[in-house]
Amino acid sequence: MKSGLIPHVKTLIVIPCLNEARTIDDLLLKFSSTLNNRDDRIIVADGGSTDGTREIVADFSRQDQRVILLANPKRIQSAGINLAVDVFGVGYDYMIRIDAHGDYPDDYCHRLLEDAVATGADSVVVAMETVGHGVFQKATAVAQNSKLGNGGSKHREGAKGRWIDHGHHALMRIEAFKVVGGYDESFSHNEDAELDHRLRKAGFRIWMTDKTRMTYYPRASIGPLFRQYMGYGRGRAKNVLKHRSIPKIRQMIPLAVLPCAALSVFGFVHWLAVLPLCLWIAACLAYGVWMAIAEKNPYGPLAAISAMTMHLAWSTGFWRELIGSITATQPLAGKAVS
Fold first, then answer.
1. Is the confidence at residue 336, as pLDDT, over 90?
2. pTM for this entry
3. Which of 96, 124, 244, 255 is the most exposed place for a label (fewest CB within 10 A)?
C-alpha cells in the first residue's frame, strides 16, 4: 500500500473494542503497516477492557505513536467512534471503522479510499463474508452467509459496485459524519442503519464497493449469538420508532417468529395454534437439509438451528423494544386528577 498513495487525504482508522486481546495486536500490525499517509492515525476506543487489551495497545503505541489508546467511558461502539472523531477528527478527511471481530485484506483501507475519491461518495460500505472455526461457529457462518440467515441483505451478498441505502459501515467522510451528528449513542445495535437513514435524508450518498470486503467471525456458542441478535432486533425496533420506518419484507418474516411461538402456547385449545410455529421450524430445517444436499455443505442442518436462534432472538428483541417503548409512553390509567 505504500505505492500509489492517495494524495491530500488524511484518514482516521477507528477500532472500537472491549476485551479483544486475542485480535487487537494483529489488527494493529496490519493497519499500522498500511497507513496511507504519515499523518494518518489509528484510534483504539476501548470500552474498559479487563483482558489485557489496553495494555497491548498502550505497548504498541509506545513503539508507534500513530496508534492511540482512547478510553471510551460509555463502552458501546457508537459512543467510542463519536468520541474518536470529536477528539481527533479535526483536519482529517475520512474515518474508517474497523470491527475487532473481523479480518481484512492488506489493501482494505487503500481500496476504500480509492473508491471514495473516484465516486465522490460520502460513505463507502462493504460486503461481509462470515467465517467460522469451531463446529457451531462454522454452522452459524453458513447460516449468516445464506438467505435463510440474512434474508438477501445486500451487504451480505456482495455484487458490482453501486449506490445503496444501507450497508456494513467501512469508510465515511468526516464532514458528512459530523453534519448529521454522528452515531446516535442511544443505539447499542443497528446504529449503522440509523445513521444511514439520516445520511440519505440529508442528501449524502452511500456507495457499496466491489473492490474489497471484510471477513467476520460470528459468536461461537448459542447464548452469545442469541443475545447479539436480540440486540439487533431491539435496534431495528428503535429505528422504526425513531424514523417511523417500515421493516423490509426480509425483516418482517422473522418478525413473526415470536408471535408464532406465543400462539403455540394455546395448542392445547386447538392444534391450529401450533401450526405456524411448526411451519417455520419445518421450513428452516428443510432449507438446512437442502444446503447439505444441493450445496454439499455438511453444516446445513446445524446452520438451520443457528438461523432459528437468530430469528427468534431478533423477533424477541424487536417486540420487547417496541412494546416496552409504547407502554412507557402511555399515560397511567386511572390516575387521579387533582
1. no
2. 0.86
3. 244
